[in-house]
């Protein structure tokens, strides 16, 4: 177990809106889950994961009030996380080489399929010209939200579209190792929130009031979970009373009986919680990565409360 890293912002960051793309029980993406297909003579069609993430961002922007939608383009950032990154594009390239030869591989496939290409595509389509970040790992969706808060705290942006996405390939799903293979299913998904600096506004869904991270092996994580993660909560809320006990929501790889959406799991859980699944009050969303890192974000879904 390692030392904690934390950040308790002097002023909480607004969650103005949230959106998620969650396929039906069969895990199949339909046109309703995807942004309209766009093609370019140089680049070709957009990758499926980009169209899925664009659809989430489009729903997010549609849910914003006029003032948030008017945030200057140069002060609006994008921060996204993914576990799989470009594995689908890599498999497409390898499969094409085997079936048709290397000359049939389009160089733009790789460029458009890089993990950070999705954030760039979202920023380009919506003209969000602020900080553009990509995080990698199972916990990367929540890390991207923390990264967005850091950009806001540093004054580099006024608002950030933040969250996670993943599109597991059929080949990977069929060969998934523990712990991911213990999940009921591995499905695609995308979840994003609109984080902004400034005072709470009517219609806000909540606010992020702190976060922390710690390296915990599996046994230490389970022991901390049984106690409600007191060290993570205390690090995220150093000025809170000692008996502060937010409701805890845990996302971990391959939890038995769950549909795992990988790096999208935590942002989707946050979006669903803010949509009404969570009771009013403080909530600790904790994600255990495939490695030792655990990330905790504290959310207050009563944005008008001081």
TrEMBL record:
Domain Beta-ketoacyl synthase-like N-terminal: 51-169
Pfam families (UniProt xref): ketoacyl-synt
Gene Ontology molecular function, alphabetical: acyltransferase activity
InterPro entries, A to Z: Ketoacyl_synth_N, Thiolase-like
Signal sequence coordinates: none
Gene3D superfamilies for the chain: 3.40.47.10
Superkingdom of origin: Bacteria
SUPFAM superfamilies associated with the record: Thiolase-like
Protein name listed in UniProt: Beta-ketoacyl synthase-like N-terminal domain-containing protein
